[in-house]
Amino acid sequence: RRVHGDVSLHCSVDAQNKAMSALWSRLTAVTRSAMTRGRTVVGKDEAGNTYYVVGEGREQRRMVDFVGEPDPKKIEPVWQLWLRKQRDAPTPEELAQRKIDAAALKARIAEVEARDARERLERIAENYSLENPSALETASEGAMAEQAMRLVTGKVSTASPSSASAEPFAPQGWKPRGRAGDGDTA
Fold this sequence. Notes:
The chain has four helices and five strands, in the order E-E-H-E-E-E-H-H-H. It has helices at 13-36, 77-83, 92-127, 139-153, and strands spanning 2-4, 7-9, 39-44, 50-54, 61-65. Strands 3-4-5 form a three-stranded antiparallel beta sheet, covered by helices on one side. Strands 1-2 form a two-stranded antiparallel ribbon. The relative contact order is 0.05.
């Protein structure tokens, strides 16, 4: 039993919490019932969101029930248009075709990027002179030109700057420079 000022409360905190919980549950159920009354499922997207229509004619409303956190940015464009009443609901066949088209587009983009990379390397190989490898300004340009020659001709240049020494490349450990006064100078 709790006393608040001069007034004694006749019910315990637990009883109050149970009553509030019951009231909240009832309100939630009534709200859900009112919101779902008259809804017709129109479709689902790949993320699992469900699209509904409520009412008819000019009073028709279109809604979406999100799976997980509501994020309107993740709604597919075709469904965004439907929600704004700018098109009819997409059919399952249309959604399947859009998925196939998206995969084909990704494959085409990969092909174009690979072709562009090869063409860039071919241009580097054309500009690289076997007689004058010192024309390249940096070692990275020499390495890129060597890679380009390897791709274009299938063989490696023996006069390239990166293959001037006969020893294979072996990374060495890094040692920090000594501070002034340490006696270690680098």
